[in-house]
Amino acid sequence: MNFSLTAFQWPPFITGLISIAVVLVVGLLAARRATAGVPSGTQSFMETAIETFQDLVGQMAPPQLAPNLSLLALTLFLMLVVANILGLLPLPGFGGGWIHSPTASLSIPAGLAAAMFLLIQWAGIKYKGLGGWIYGWVWKPFPVIGLVINALEQLVMPVSLAFRLFGNILAGELVLRMTTHMPHGVGGVLTTFFIGTLWLVFSVVISLIQALIFTILTVAYMSIQASQEH
Amino acid sequence: MSSTSLTVGNMIAAVLQWVLLLVLLRAFVYKPILAAMQNRKENIAKQIGDADRLKADAEKLREEAVALINEAREEAKHIVANARQEAEDQAKKIVEQAQREASYRQKAAIEEIEYEREQALAAIRGQVADLVLLAAGKVIERNLTRDDQHRYVEEIVRDAGQWQ
Fold it and tell me: For A77, which of A127, B83, B114, B122 is 20 to 30 Å away at the CA?
């Protein structure tokens, strides 16, 4: 792992753009001719998604935060789902080989996790006040020493978010590629066909679950930050 | 491997992509769909309210209609009973009148017959007296033989026949 300020990677940026474009197209299809009458298939899909997230977030977040946070989380979830599945599709990638998920590049989950960290702290400041937020960081569970504990807890959170998503998606892609590189012969073909198909199905499920985990954990951390009493 | 390298540019770009998507979805997708959902919710609430009100109205109208029907039925029964009573009364009256008239006619006829009979009797009595007088006159006028007598009597009888 190397850290770079300058070397911009185009492939994950472009696949990221493709991901948000797909979500946007689906969303626009759903919103086109949005009607209060009987909704079309895409509209009712989007309505179900919105309502599901309103319910999910409403159970955790404080009521003032919930409406906006649910839309924010839904956007994140939709983007991550498409991004995660993108690497499983049989599309040509950049510089040969197959396409990669943007989330299989550490920078993307890490960037998002960093943004989530800031968002979580913002929620803490907004709902507890600056004093309450600092107090929560420094004074709990023990005065002063609390800072060390809290710094560990709060910093591990985005790191774990980033690596969980990155690791799962990268592993999914790598194993899928591996099933296509079996030795020649009947055994290899059968392995590619059966194990590859099974792994593909598994990876799609993992893509959904990881997108949901990333989103829901962020909402949960934000809710905890916003509601912590002092 | 480039996938494990951490580049600040890509990190920021990923966040900006997310924010861009959020802004676009919020403006062009969430807003119209949430508005549609809200509208539908209000429509449904309104329709349920309307349905309740209409149902209450219908129930009230039904009760009124039932009351009216019952009233009409009572009235009809009353009218029929009245009509029957009236018809019976009239029939009785007609029969009574007919009977009265019949008995009157009968009485009148009897009286007339009686009168005619009296008249006839009186007339007969008068003619008999005339005949007797005529016969007596003939007897006194002549001494009659048996044959004459016979002839006269026949004559008289013939005369009497002519008078009739």
Answer: A127
Choose, out of A105, A177, A218, the residue to mutate when testing the contact with B (most B CBs < 10 Å): A105
Taking only residues 184 to 223 of chain A, the set having a beta carbon closer than 8 angstroms to any beta carbon of chain B reads none
Which pTM value belongs to this model?
0.73
Question: Is there a contact between A90 and A195 (Cβ–Cβ < 8 Å)?
Answer: no
Domain boundaries, chain A: 10-227
Best CA proximity match to B36, nearest among A35, A33, A30, A52: A35
Which DSSP category does A182 fall into?
Answer: P
Triad A120, A126, A130: Cα angle to 5°: 100
Nearest Cα residue to A14 out of A71, A91, A115, A78: A91
User: Residue with structure tokens 């020649």?
Assistant: A184
* pLDDT beyond 70 at B137: yes
A29 half-sphere exposure, CB direction, 13 A CA radius: 11
What does the block give as tokens for B50? 């309307």
ipTM score of complex? 0.89
